[in-house]
Amino acid sequence: MRIAIADDYEIVVAGIAAALAPYSERVEVVELDTRVPTVSDVDIVLHDTFGRPQGDAFDLALLASPHGPKVVVFSWNLQPHLVDRALDQGAAGYLAKSLTAEKIVTALERVHAGECVRALGLDIDEDISAATWPTRDHGLSEREAEVLALISQGLTNQEIAERCYLSINSIKTYIRTAYRKIGVSRRAQAVGWGLENGLDPDHSRIIRPEGTGLVTHPPR
Predict the structure, then answer these.
(1) Domains of the chain, with CATH numbers?
(2) Helices and strands (H and E) in the chain: how many
(3) Residues near 193 by Cβ (< 8 Å), separated by ≥ 6?
(4) How far is CA 107 from the centre of its chain?
């Protein structure tokens, strides 16, 4: 089973690839994409939602070629209506980030076999999967980091709430806790901190030709 991993941040796709590496006999990661469409011949595109539109707000056609790789969403946001919207739009699966790497591989195998898989695990505040996200080493949860990433991209609180499908009060809570952890008190300071600490989206493609290591290709 050949897969590509898609997200706006290299550290995210690299972290997922590292988590899946022990299962290389079952799943082969052949492409890592940050803000570019998949071009390799793969069976599945694993779409990480960190910092990205969710539900029916993202275009599946942007993630894969017209020739048919299946798209599986990988997210901490497990609201039932959000899962339903993604699947209704054509996603072949929706996986929780609380899943272990082995369970992720098993779910991908089921998708490859033709199932539509909802592997939602537990909806918890602290992520327990082997995946990673920008600023994790600064003590930020993935949700706090995502909110800071969207602030760094210039989105308002209301726009962040709409993108993440969370209430405005939840967004304000994440902002307060994130600000406290990084030692800032104003939005401009948070933007500056975010840009200095890896919250500016990347733009690259890494393809693994048959029999070789991962090599970087410039985005098209």
Answers:
(1) 2-125+201-217 (3.40.50.2300), 136-196 (1.10.10.10)
(2) 7, 8
(3) 148, 182, 184
(4) 16
The Cα–Cα gap between 218 and 220 comes to: 6
The DSSP bridge pattern shows strands 204-207 and 28-34 to be antiparallel
Q: In whole angstroms, what is the distance from residue 23 CA to residue 18 CA?
A: 10
Distance CA 4, CA 29 (A): 6
Length reported for the chain: 220
Q: Name the helix (H) or strand (E) containing 71.
A: strand 70-75
For residues 13 and 20, what is the distance between their CA atoms, to the nearest angstrom?
Answer: 11
- Asked if 96 and 89 count as a contact pair (C-beta separation under 8 A), the reply is no
3-state secondary structure of 192: helix
**CB 165, CB 55: distance < 8 Å:** yes
Tell me which DSSP letter residue 7 carries: E
Per residue in 17-72, pLDDT tens? 999 999 999 999 998 888 888 888 899 999 998 887 776 666 666 565 556 789 99
Amino acid, single-letter form, for residue 156: T
The tens digit of pLDDT for each residue in 70-117 reads 999 998 888 888 888 888 888 899 999 888 899 999 999 999 999 999
Q: Which H or E run includes 172?
A: helix 168-182
Tell the burial category of 127 from Cβ atoms under 10 Å away from its Cβ (0-12, 13-18, 19+).
middle
Contacts of 165 (CB under 8 A, 6+ apart): 54, 55, 77, 79, 82
